[in-house]
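Lab meeting notes turned into a lecture example. A postdoc, R.K., suggested we walk through two folding results consecutively so the class can see how the record format repeats. The first protein's sequence and structure tokens come next.
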Amino acid sequence: MEQTRKGDGVDREKFYEGASWLAQQSVAECDEALRRLEALRQDFRKRLTETGSDAFMRERLSEWVLDSSERIVKEAKEKAE
């Protein structure tokens, strides 16, 4: 019985070590995605200023930022899976 308890403790410790590692990896991936989204936001603001009042370019810019955002989210999701 005592040996079973010791074995359970080791298994539990390994489980928590694995869960902790997985959580750290998830946080790192989220941080990376947030960093990329922040860079995208800054690039968007710069390009928005450059377009002035050109409606066609603003429409293209909105499509670009949506596509880029979706790509970043998709890549982060794929890494998490």
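The second example is placed directly after the first for contrast:
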Amino acid sequence: MIEYVERLIGAIKACSGQKVPEEHAVSIEQFITHYVWHCKDRKDTGHLNLWQRLEGRLNEMLERRRRLIKYLFKKEKRLDEFEEKFAQNISKKT
């Protein structure tokens, strides 16, 4: 999901001069405003582009992944290895 949202942000930025088709914009809006998100949507803070609002959701997904992996390391009593292993794990996935 993280990779998909990253690619979607890139695609929207690449088409900066063009408007996103309405059916796609509605789907993206539903994703951004879905109830599962903990952070409030930044739509109220002035005029933000769709990709900027998606970046907020991407950041939340990245933070959730980080917290989950940190929790798993803590559970296994390997919290001292977390920073190094987390960076390795993310670079491997990339």
